[in-house]
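Appendix C: a fully annotated inverse folding record. The material below is reproduced so that readers can follow the format used throughout the book. The structure is listed first as C-alpha cells, followed by the designed sequence.
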C-alpha cells in the first residue's frame, strides 16, 4: 500500500500531536457542558477515536452517515442521510467532527439541519481544511491542518473505499486513480 503513495503530507506523529492539541482546546471550551460530538461516517472514524480520547471532560458521541450525490472525488451538495443520529440535538452544544472540508457543501447542509433541529450551538471540527475547494462560504471553528487542492487519502479518507486504514495522510500516485 505504501508504494501507491506519492507523498506523505502529514505523518501519524503530527496527527497525534494535533489531536492532543485540539482535545485540550475542546476540554477548555466545553468543560461542564456535556457536548454532543457527531462523527461523520466513514471518514471521520479514526479522527473521532483519537480526538475524543484527548478530551478530558464528559462528552456524548454519536454518528451520522451522509452521502452526497456526486462523482467519486467531489460532492455535489445534494445530501442524503444514510444513517441519522440516535440522540436528539435539541438544546445541545454540538460539535460536528469531519475528516475534511472541501467544497463545504456537506457541512453547510449538516450545520443547517442541526440548527433547524434546535441545537443550542453547532461548531465544526475538521482534521483537514482544503480552502481552495470551497463553493460555499463556510469556515471550520477548529481545523487541524490546511491541505493543498489535491486528492488526499489515509486516516479515514478513501479512494474507492481503500486507504482509510493508512495511519498518515498522503497523496496517491496519479497512476493509481488514472487506472480506475
Ligand atoms: P465537501 O466538498 O462537501 O466534501 O466539503 C466533504 C467530503 O468530500 C470528500 N472529499 C475527499 N475525500 N480525499 C478524500 O478521500 C479528498 O481529498 C477529499 N476532498 C473531499 C470527503 O468524503 C469529505 O467528507
Ligand atoms: Mg466524507
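Designed amino acids, in order:
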Amino acid at each position: 500500500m505504501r508504494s501507491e503513495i506519492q507523498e506523505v503530507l502529514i505523518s501519524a506523529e503530527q496527527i497525534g500531536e494535533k489531536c492532543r492539541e485540539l482535545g485540550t482546546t475542546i476540554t477548555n471550551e466545553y468543560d461542564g457542558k456535556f457536548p454532543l460530538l457527531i462523527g461523520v461516517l466513514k471518514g471521520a472514524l479514526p479522527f473521532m477515536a483519537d480526538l475524543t480520547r484527548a478530551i478530558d471532560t464528559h462528552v456524548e458521541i454519536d454518528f451520522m452517515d451522509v452521502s452526497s450525490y456526486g462523482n467519486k472525488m467531489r460532492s455535489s451538495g445534494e445530501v442524503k442521510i444514510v444513517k441519522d443520529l440516535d440522540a436528539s440535538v435539541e438544546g445541545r452544544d454540538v460539535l460536528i467532527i469531519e475528516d475534511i472540508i472541501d467544497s463545504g457543501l456537506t457541512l453547510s447542509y449538516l450545520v443547517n439541519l442541526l440548527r433547524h433541529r434546535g441545537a443550542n450551538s453547532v461548531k465544526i471540527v475538521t482534521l483537514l481544511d482544503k480552502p481552495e475547494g470551497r463553493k460555499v462560504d463556510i469556515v471550520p471553528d477548529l481545523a487541524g491542518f490546511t491541505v493543498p487542492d489535491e486528492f488526499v487519502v489515509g486516516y479515514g479518507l478513501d479512494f474507492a473505499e481503500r486507504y482509510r486504514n493508512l495511519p498518515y495522510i498522503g497523496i496517491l500516485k496519479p497512476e493509481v486513480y488514472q487506472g480506475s
